[in-house]
Design brief:
Helix content: over 70%
Radius of gyration: 16 Å
Order of helices and strands: HHHH
Length: about 130
Amino acid sequence: MQRKYVRIGAVLMALAVALGAFGAHILEPIIGEKATGTYETGVHYHMIHALGILITALLAGKLGESRKWLWANRLFVIGIVLFSGSLYLMAITGWKWLGPITPLGGISFIVGWLLLASAAWTNQSK
């Protein structure tokens, strides 16, 4: 699990940087200030949770693998797709119907962080 999620996290970080640069240098003059803010929020959460994937993978290697670490990372990936992905698409296309999808990604992020905390507590008690 550790190597797989380090690879996934690293690729998602590179993608976040590329999408951020694309938004700042190419999209901003096209989509306007409000949509750019939405897009930047997507990039921000994308980057934070890609780092979370890397940290979780490294913690799993240090503290011992468990299903909680695995599911935390899976939920971070799902959150990036749902939360950041929906914000990217709303900003670029103006499709407001994607709005209800965004909170599902946020919930995925929250549950992922709670699983990470739970895994750390579980490993601490051993």
